Amino acid sequence: MLSEDRTAKSAIRDAAIELFGTYGPDAVSLRAVAAAAGVSQPLIIKHFGSRHGLKEAADAHVLALAREALEPLITGGAMPDRGIADVLASTPVTRYLAYLLIGNGPHADEAFTSLQRFSVVLVERLAAAGMVASGTDHERLATVLLAHDLSAALLRERIIRALGEDPLSETGLEQWRDLVGRLYNGTVLGPAPMG
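The structure assignment produced for this chain is given below.
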């Protein structure tokens, strides 16, 4: 029974993420979540206590997926078992993350602050390994890296349409990092020709 409850709980959470990401949490009823998850409304209350509890669980799950995806992006380390594209490939997850980060209010602030703190921890790890130049403001670097990495994830569908390739695939990430690295070190753009 416990494993069935966990399966139902994750199905409810995932249905909520899909619906909340598509329509916004305020526009989605518990009845709609229950129908999408194939469960009853009382089961949602049993597992999450309230609509607010369901929203909190959805927020926490999407932020955990984003942290998992951002770690190798920020550190430049090896790809995890689940590729970044797999973690954030889900359009509902990406839409819900966008909702959390772009919205107004405490949830938007909490979402960004949570990811920014995580990014600072990763930059501190890089600094401890001697991979950050001395004198670099770690918090500023962490915030810039976070904004850069999130832009590829949140604009992913539009980037695919524009370039015809996925910026979060292994090849796409390599090309993205290479071009951005050359852009930042000044080898892509030069001064305008005189004349």
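Interim note for the steering committee: The radius of gyration is 20 Å. Confidence is low (pLDDT under 50) at residues 79-85.
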